[in-house]
Amino acid sequence: MIRFLLKGILGDKSRSLLPVIVVCIGVSLTVLLNCWLKGVMGESLVMNANFDTGHVKVMTRAYAQEAQQMPNDLAILGADTLTEQLKKTYPDMDWVKRIRFGGMIDFPDEQGETRAQGPVVGWAVDLLSAGSKEATRFNIKKSLVNGKLPSTAGEALITHDFAEKFKVNPGDEFTLFGSTMEGSMAFKNFVVSGTVRFGSNVLDRGAIIIDMADAQQALGMEDAAGEILGYFTTNQYDNAKATAITTSFNAKYTQNTDEFAPVMLRLRDQGGMAEYIDYSTTMGSLMVFVFVLAMSVVLWNTGLLGGLRRYTEFGVRLALGEEKNHIYATLIYEGILIGTIGSVIGTGIGLSISYYLQEVGVDIGGSMKNSTLMMPSVVRAAITPTAFYIGFIPGIFSVVLGNALAGIGIYKRKTAQLFKELE
Amino acid sequence: MEKPIVQIDNLTKRFPVGNSEFTALSHLSLTIDKGEFMGLVGPSGSGKTTLLNIIGSLDTPTEGSVEVMGQSIATLTHKQAAILRNYHIGFIFQSYNLLPVYTVFENVEFALLLQNLSADERKKWVMQALEWVGLTDKAKSKPSQLSGGESQRVSIARAMVKRPQLVLADEPSANLDARNSHHIVQTMKKLNKELHTTFIFSTHDEKVMQYLDRIVSLKDGMVEKDEAVLHIQN
Ligand SMILES: Nc1ncnc2c1ncn2[C@@H]1O[C@H](COP(=O)(O)OP(=O)(O)OP(=O)(O)O)[C@@H](O)[C@H]1O
Ligand SMILES: [Mg+2]
Fold first, then answer.
1. Which region among A246-250, B69-73, B111-115 has the lowest average model confidence (pLDDT)?
2. Distance B183 CA to ligand 2 centre (A)
3. Nearest to B37, CA basis, from B145, B188, B161
4. Is A100 in the same domain as A225?
5. I want to staple A261 with a disulfide (CB 3.0 to 4.6 A). Which of A25, A256, A379, B53 is the partner?
């Protein structure tokens, strides 16, 4: 029977061509959308985790309230002890201290007068101690445009675009002005060791990266840190594990009402990213749903038109002793066959375009100028195993639904009437 | 005496038309025996097709009883009706109704697909049926490549391939020229003789009528005349 169905489908172009094309378009769009979202989400998520949220993050409750403002007056005191504790309790994770700060940098000329001056955001991370993975997390080696990584205290990296604007080269000195934990003025001199470009507008606008110890000293934050980040040693965010660790850690402090008591947040709990991901996922699913709906309506109509032309065939088949149920079932099989053919071709097309977008990427830097989301400015699609089958779901579903709706007409008509169409 | 293959008693068929009803068959009684080669004649609208459809279990009686091969058409489930058609009744239509995407062979094979036969058996039966109608050489052709007469012979092969006891032919010669009309009726007559298949025709065609053993004339849904035809043998 399948052989007969296939031959019927392939032999009758009007029955197969349009549905296959419709399915193809829908499926390739679904696959493309999936790879695109996966790619953009994935890269943004990794970048965000590495630069900002960690897989989990410990802050004081007060700091957590306004984390975006980098309120270092609310930083964790006794950060070294707490970090050691975390390392002991949760050895599965790599725990690192960080300070984020805002400030001003000032480049002097030969006379020591201000030559250029501008606001920066800064990251203080552990660059110098042996075995630190922070440089890798910030992808510094690959991002380095000029110069080298800081190798001693008092060296700093600045973003390349920023450096170009101020005509600064490795080896130049600058002064960082900031404020201490107590709110008084702080400053410290640094030497530019290198310039970096991270490929994300938010980061490249104007940032410096200095070693943790330098920052603690400059900002009067000895044994203090704004944030302690935890990373799974596998480097993969695992929401279940993160939830377990977060719950167990926070349980220890439920009785404590101090606003400086530490609190741990998962990646998903932190500023915007979770909403952003949820929003994108919802939008993605919604779009696929709309594709399915639109495809089904189109296929329903082609099915109806095709069905009208096929009343002769149905009549003959009824006369030959086929049951209505069986004819209906074969329509569904046909739907599955057409859906499969369309899905295979559509998945092929979708994957090809996705592959191209994965290798080449799209520069969205221009449209991201004012964005506060940490996103790579060249975004790429990512082909995951899901992409190979995800399109089949809407592809097959829509034709089957279309045929199922169209086929109801067979039941609506009395057998003898169906048969009348023969004359 | 063997039981009749079709036994119709007091059959009435009414169709709803708008808010009222139209009576297509009225208190009609008819008995058809196994092996008959008979025809329904009568003016257009006299109820020939309606009667054939009911005998073929494609439609149901409004009143009265119709028994085909001992089964009452009114009480058959969809499934039972389908089985009856699948194994015991063949249909031949005025407009052939071959399926254009399939070859001649496949069109005939289609009738056997629902029966539990092996591919080899199906092939044997199909080739046999094509031989009956003299079209073995056209097995691989598509319907669009056939003449009208050839198409109707394929549809006879399709009706006959499962060797049904009863064949219903609704104006089989209406689209054919004289030579082809004679040819297909002769073919059916031969099968009637050889396989003892019962044939019920509906026809306006004098050329067909001359082969029939019995002619039932319908008028306004009632039997007007029912006469046996004596053939002068030569
Ligand atoms: N489904 C239906 N609904 C309403 N009226 C119908 C229906 N089917 C048949 N009729 C009517 O019943 C009458 C008999 O129709 P039928 O098709 O049986 O005639 P016929 O003898 O086969 O005519 P012809 O020689 O033109 O084929 C006609 O008047 C027709 O209009
Ligand atoms: Mg008729």
1. B111-115
2. 22
3. B188
4. yes
5. A256
Decide if A265 is inside a domain. Answer: no
How far CA B228 is from CA of B37, B112, B196, B208, in Å, comes to 10, 35, 18, 15
Question: Tens digits of per-residue pLDDT, A262-284?
Answer: 999 998 888 666 677 777 778 88
Which of B78, B106, B113 lies closest to A324 in CB terms?
A: B78
Please check whether residue B225 is in contact with residue B49, taking contact to mean a CB–CB distance below 8 angstroms: no
Report d(CA A85, CA A251) in Å as an integer.
Answer: 15
pLDDT in tens, B32-57: 999 999 999 999 999 999 999 999 99
Kindly report, residue by residue over A117-133, the tens digit of the pLDDT: 889 999 999 999 888 99
Question: Residue A308's domain spans which residues?
Answer: 2-47+275-422
Of A185, A212, A236, which residue constitutes the final position of a domain?
A236
| A336 and A225 fall within a common domain | no
Q: A344-353 pLDDT, tens per residue?
A: 999 999 999 9
On whether both A73 and A165 belong to a single domain, the answer is yes
Cβ–Cβ pairs < 8 A, chains A and B: 71
Which B residues, 37 through 56, put their C-beta within 8 Å of a C-beta on chain A?
49, 53, 56
- Report the atom number in ligand 1 closest to the C-alpha of B51: 18
- Is B110 near chain A, with CB under 8 Å? yes
Dig out the tokens for B80 from the structure.
């039972």
A241 found inside a domain: no
